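Subgroup meeting minutes
Present: P.N., E.W., G.H.
Scribe: E.W.

1. P.N. recapped why we're keeping a running log of single-chain structure predictions: easier to compare across weeks, and new members can see raw inputs and outputs side by side.
2. G.H. added today's entry (221 aa).
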Amino acid sequence: MNNVKQIPDFALVFDFDGVVLDSATLKRQAFADVYSHMPAEQHRAIVAYLNRRGGQPREVKFRHIEAHILGRKADDARIRSLCEQFKESVEERLLHAPFIPGAIHFLSRWQGKRAIYLLSATPQNELVAIVEQRQLAAYFDEVIGAPPDKATGLGSLLSRQGLAAKQTVMIGDSYNDYRAARSNGTLFVGVAAQPQRSPFPSDTQIINDLRQLEDALTKLV
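Output recorded in log:
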């Protein structure tokens, strides 16, 4: 007997950290650890910024931190060095991060039945590597990392795959994901473990984790 609930025939575009893999917090911690030697007031400002700015490429975050929080000019070599420190700090953590509740169950149920894509601000080569190491590659029709930024990446995906924006759903946990969806005219489902701290507008369809995704998708019709 088939008990699989039917969902609309949407193309689904998943963010990665905080949506499929429970890694958003550990990545914020890895960013903060790069600046663990800074005075307490500056370190608190860095942590506050990181808590607000999910879903952006690491280069963007480091440039903002260096220029607007620490007030110093960082050339490309400095940014590359910071990115390498971050990469070394986070790689091992990602191998052991748990999946978001419901993620594997949902992907397993709908693999091959819906077009499913992964879109992340993680650099492309690193994203592909962790997806393969965590044995997730088979679930996705395409894995898309940075560059470009998410809004551009989503727009390129729609064009490349011939996807109708109104039949495509972005599933993300940051305002940057929401903005990418809105700028491309797609639908959106927000993931927020603590809805009272959601970064999304009040009219956004919000779920705690992917165990609620099927129900959320049926409400978008």
